[in-house]
Design brief:
This protein is an alpha+beta fold. It contains 7 helices and 23 strands. The protein has helices at 2-18, 40-50, 55-63, 133-143, 254-265, 285-295, 307-312, and strands spanning 73-76, 81-85, 94-99, 103-110, 113-118, 121-126, 130-131, 145-150, 154-158, 169-174, 178-187, 195-201, 204-209, 213-218, 223-229, 277-278, 282-283, 317-318, 329-333, 339-347, 350-354, 361-365, 371-376. It has a 6-stranded antiparallel β-sheet. Strands 6-5-4-1-7 form a 5-stranded antiparallel β-sheet. It is globular and about 60 Å long. The N and C termini lie far apart (73 Å).
């Protein structure tokens, strides 16, 4: 009876300590120590001594930790895109649209119309084409991408989930780096009984201490139209995905640029395939940029295939840091400034890129390493 009580206490106490929210850490991690999770170490030691065969069960329990989803979330229930209107009616201006399975946040519902906010767009959508309430939360978990964001200044990425061996430090990642989670939670027994998250980052697959990470879902967001105008009374624009592609002919192209970023975010985690061009089966870094451009209606016939050729070609034009806009391409390379990597600029000093053999598509800070050049291929 005593052993059974101890096991139950260890697990229950572990959940009390872990809670359901990520632990915020303000201090930077040094190269030798990740902070222990307090008294959980003692109880887990006793638990393992009592019955080491039950490790997998405890891991399973810890791995089902819920990541919060706002109760007022809505998900676009369409095959293509859902019009966002200025007012609650089909006779009002279209101010933007929600791509299929994109998310919005609902502030009010009345007479079949939901007042929503998504990204930079505020307006109304028909509830006939929206999952909301309990179904909205369920669909948000289904269609969201679970990501981990670094919330400390610098965190060690390790080849093994353990702090006992300093030789397992692969590299460092930095505050606000975002990437797709491979395994939500992994428990490993070392001196500090840390909880670890398995991730991919750049050319490496490894483990990060959970107390330095914030878990959240990412969803596609609304696209703002450049010139609002009234169209047909149908709220659901199209019943087939990619049924039409906009034709762009220079100018500011804000809508196109927002569409490029929103489309790229849909492919977080897309696997790396050398020479790949497919948003289904995989791409390499330049193939990803070109595939996203093409999916958004950009003519890529004059853009070279490789990152080095893109950077050096006469196609597009070089832009300074102050001129960067979402959808532009950033080029990275080695110490000799030979270009070997390209990424899509998202705005707010972030890029999205096909990172590596193991990493897939991730979001990074644009200065995760110095970029060599930036180019505008859009206007």
């Amino acid at each position: 009876m005593g052993r059974l009580w101890l096991k139950a206490t260890a697990v229950a106490f572990g959940f009390v300590l872990l809670g359901t929210s990520p632990l915020k850490v303000s201090a930077e991690e040094n190269n030798s120590v990740e902070t222990a999770l307090g008294g959980l170490s003692y109880y887990l030691d006793e638990y393992y001594k009592d019955n080491s065969q039950e490790t997998d069960s405890l891991t399973d329990l810890l791995s089902i930790e819920e990541v919060a989803v706002p109760e007022n979330i809505g998900i676009a229930n369409v095959n293509d895109k859902l019009n966002i209107r200025k007012g609650p009616g089909t006779n009002t201006e279209i101010v933007g649209y929600l791509p299929a399975k994109a998310a919005c946040f609902i502030s009010d519902i009345s007479d079949g119309w939901a007042k929503i906010t998504s990204g930079n767009v505020n307006g109304y959508v028909s509830t006939d084409y929206l999952w909301y309430d309990t179904q909205g939360v369920e669909k948000a978990k289904e269609y969201g991408v679970l990501t981990a964001t670094v919330n400390a200044g610098r965190v060690n990425l390790r080849s093994e989930p353990s702090t006992t061996d300093q030789s397992n430090i692969l590299t460092s990642v930095y505050r606000d780096d975002v990437f797709k989670v491979l395994d939500e939670t992994i428990l490993t027994r070392d001196e500090e009984a840390d909880i670890w998250i398995k991730v991919t980052y750049m050319e490496t697959e490894g483990y990060l201490a959970k107390q330095f990470m914030e878990l959240s879902y990412q969803w596609n967001e609304a696209i703002q139209v450049e010139e609002p105008k009234t169209t047909s009374s149908s709220t659901q624009v199209s019943s087939q995905p990619n049924s039409s592609k906009p034709a762009y002919s220079g100018g500011n192209n804000t809508e196109l640029r927002n569409t490029i970023v929103a489309t790229a975010k849909q492919y977080l985690g897309l696997r790396y395939v050398y020479g790949g061009n497919s948003l289904t089966s995989g791409t390499d870094c330049s193939g990803f940029c070109l595939a996203i451009y093409r999916a958004c209606g950009v003519d890529t016939s004059n853009i070279p295939r490789s990152s080095a050729s893109m950077a050096s070609s006469s196609s597009g034009r070089s832009v300074s840091r102050s001129e960067l806009r979402p959808g532009d391409l950033l080029f990275y390379g080695n110490n000799n400034k030979t270009v070997n990597h390209v990424a899509i600029y998202m705005g707010n000093n972030k890029i999205i890129h096909e990172s590596s053999n193991s990493g897939g598509v991730i979001i990074s800070d644009m200065d995760y390493r110095p970029y060599i050049k930036a180019k505008n291929f859009i206007d």
